[in-house]
Amino acid sequence: MNLPPNNRFDEIVEMLNKDSSRAVVDACVAMVDNNALLFARTRDLAVQSAYPVNMRAARVVEQCVRHNKQLAINDLAFYVGHAEQHETDGIKRAFLKIISYFMDDGVGDEQLGRVIDICFKKILSHNEPVAVKAYSIDILEMAIVREPDLEGEFVITLEDQVGKNSHALDLKIKKILKSVDNKARKMHEHRQKRL
Predict the structure, then answer these.
(1) Which residues constitute the domain of residue 19?
(2) Statement to judge: residues 95 and 4 lie in one domain
(3) Residue-level pLDDT, tens digit, the chain, 195 residues
(4) What is the total count of domains within the chain?
(5) Do 46 and 12 belong together in one domain?
(6) CB under 8 A, 24+ apart: contacts of 27-32
(7) Do 3 and 92 sit in the same domain of this protein?
(8) Does 90 lie in the same domain as 49?
(9) Is residue 121 domain-shared with residue 54, that is, in the same domain?
(10) 100 and 26 share a domain?
(11) Which of 151, 160, 157 is nearest to 181 (CA)?
(12) Is the pTM of this model over 0.90?
């Protein structure tokens, strides 16, 4: 399919207006490919159009970034801002996933604090859906690698959330808490052996 970029974008919009299936998302990702202009237009569609097209476009954007992080590396602040403020859950979910792709090598120290703050707020919010909270937890787990001092606050926050969310999220939280507890126990045993 070698349509000019404008025609491909029109086709992407048409497809996203009709369906949200994985096949449609995959076809749109293939049309965008590594074309920065088509990617930018699809990203703008995600934040400027109405539901459900905005959520579908956000899924396309997330999948494009998953396959080629270079498409979004210079716009990380854009994704952070919309993950924090956008009203559509699907956009927050997709943009948090994008942020997670950059936690190892793209989120600078100046932005890390904002990302951490956003994620803690989302976990503690009564209004955020389970998926948004789950991605926020994932991001904070990655942030702790860079900022180990956050682990205490992270554990307290997760302990506070047990029983306040879905069963699946509670299981995820309990698994993380058990892992942190096991790590602390091993560190304590290691210190005892050294004494």
Answers:
(1) 1-68
(2) no
(3) 455 567 899 999 999 999 889 999 999 999 999 999 999 999 999 999 999 999 999 999 999 999 999 999 889 999 999 999 999 999 999 999 999 999 988 788 889 999 999 999 999 999 999 999 999 999 999 999 899 999 999 999 999 999 999 999 999 999 999 988 777 666 656 666 766
(4) 2
(5) yes
(6) 28/60, 29/60, 29/63, 29/64, 29/67, 31/1, 32/8, 32/60, 32/64
(7) no
(8) no
(9) no
(10) no
(11) 151
(12) no
Same domain for 112 and 171, yes or no, is: yes
